[in-house]
Design a protein that fits this description.
Layout: E1 2-3, E2 27-28, E3 33-36, E4 51-63, E5 72-83, E6 88-94, E7 99-102, H1 106-119, E8 136-137, E9 145-153, E10 156-163, H2 169-175, H3 185-193, E11 197-203, E12 214-224, E13 231-233, E14 245-253, E15 272-276, H4 308-317, E16 324-333, H5 335-339, E17 345-347
Parallel strand pairs: 1-2, 4-14
Antiparallel strand pairs: 3-6, 4-5, 5-12, 6-11, 7-12, 8-9, 9-10, 10-11, 13-17, 14-16, 15-16
Length: 375
Amino acid sequence: MLRIVCCCGVLARALPALALAMLLPSVTLADGMVIPRANMPRAKAKYEGSLEERAQEAIIIFHGSDKPGKATEDLILKITVEGSADDFAWVIPFCKEPRVKKADAALFKELHDYVHYRLEPKPEKEKAMGGMGGIGVMGGRRKDVTVLSRKVVGSYDVAVVRENTPGRLNGWLADEGYRRIEDGDDVIEFYRAKGYVFACIKVSDAKLKTNTPADLHPLRFRFTTGGRDGIYFPMKMTGLQKEPFDVNLYVFYRFWLNDKLNQYGYENHGFRRRYRDWDTARCKPNGGKNWTYPLGDPFLRPAADKVPKVAKLLRDLRPGKRYYLTNIWADKLDPAKVRKWDDDLWLFPYYTDRKRVPYDARKDGPAFRLSRRSD
């Protein structure tokens, strides 16, 4: 389950390691932040309770590119909200303006079952061989905040905005009837200075009950990362919340991901691998898996009946493309430490040369800040 505080990057709890075979536990997310309405129309008084993300899961489908700035990513976010406010906003930072669509929550159940199946002991298992709308402005803030697009997606009203003047996003949120993001100016400025945009998502039909989590249908965001080989996941805004959080990510990519080869591995950010696809004697080495048609893949065929919706989504997005699925997770991340990260979470290919710097972590790349890490 998930709890969320929604506004540009705060979410964060995923599955503990021992809970893989069970129902998803309560977790805190790391993709944005949730904020309540300042003065809800149906309420007699201002909202005074707590509202935070307590868990988040995400599915990432990444397609790198040989050309700078052409890599594309589909980010599917699923949240569970807990609190006492019926109306709230969810704000998520993106490298470039995303296109937004409704997604099916069943995708997460299928991937959970698939990973569980793969991790079950099987004597016969083979060993691995190695290897949106029109452009406009809102609230008279024509120069301070630009609304790039606005549309209704399922239960959400999604506005993609760009903050042009430091400190003005909070004013725009106030104009929209939501509380300001307290003590978050440094994080908002971090994204504004990088030229990022914010997906501001209104939710008005969650019907929240105190201490009772509410599941909301997932959203799929498609955007360009501004780079070539870096997979983006927003994390720094999660540092604005108070409680430790967990994150659970299912990543589809043509190659394995760098875990601990060097400073660019995800283990440096407190993430661990729960599962990844591997090559068997019947597979083409380093060839990826035919996730768009699992029945035609020797590795996926035994589990094809577990992932029909996942296969259809990948087939609709990129027919014939091949991927390795990697499931990584982190638990009890300290928000204060995440806030101090040099950048968000960036995932990179498993380059066998430990000295190689990923393209996107080089000068002028979107993840260049990571190259300056001293730890």
